[in-house]
Amino acid sequence: MGLAELKALSNRYGANPDYVLGGGGNTSYKEGDTLFVKASGKALADITSEGFVAMNLKALTDLAGDVLEGTDREVEAEVLRRMMDARLPGEETKRPSVEAMLHALFPETYVLHLHPALINGITCAKGGRITAEVLFGREMLWIPEIKPGYTLANRAQKDMEKFREEKGEACHLLFLENHGVFFAADTVEELDALFERVYKAVASFSYRPPDVTPLPYDQAGAEELGRELLTLTGAGAFSFGVDKLLLDTMSSGIFETVTDFTPDHIVYCKARTLLTEEETAGEDIKAYQAKMGFPPVIVGLPGKGVFAFGKDKKAADNALAVLRDAAKIAYYAEGSGGMRLMSDFMVNFITHWEVESYRAKAAN
Question: Which ranges constitute the DSSP H helices of 137-274?
Answer without folding.
Answer: 150-167, 188-205, 219-233, 244-251, 263-269
